[in-house]
Amino acid sequence: MRRRQDPSPSPNPHPHLALALALTLALALALALALARTLTRCAAAECESVYDLMDLEDAERNELLAGLSSAQAAPKLEPSPLP
């Protein structure tokens, strides 16, 4: 007995997955570009470490970190558990 083939196979069985992947990649690219711009500005200001960044005046530091959100510029640090 011969099996019937579906005459119209779906080209993408998971369209939502493809959309989620595309949105995730777009977000990752946007974050990478923002970080690259920030690092370029910091390098131009000869800011090589977090200590150099903290030594800057507030206005200058805010200008360097302008491309980052407040959460990215000052991430919440969780205390590490004691051994």
Structure explained in plain terms:
The chain has 83 residues and is mainly α. The protein has a domain at 24-67. It has helices spanning 15-44, 50-55, 58-64, 70-73. The longest helix has 30 residues, at 15-44. The model has no long low-confidence stretch (mean pLDDT 81).
Summarize the structure.
The chain is mainly α. The protein contains four helices and no strands.
List keywords for this structure.
single chain; 83 residues
Sheet with most strands: none
Q: Uncertain segments of ≥5 residues (pLDDT<50)?
A: none
Structural class determined from secondary elements: mainly alpha
Helix content: 55-70%
* Shape category: elongated
Helix count, per DSSP? 4
Mean pLDDT figure? 81
Oligomeric state of this protein: single chain
- How far apart are the first and last residues' alpha carbons, in Å? 67 Å
| N-to-C SSE string, H for helix and E for strand | HHHH
Rg from Cα:
23 Å
How much of the sequence lies in strands comes to under 5%
Give the beta-strand count.
0
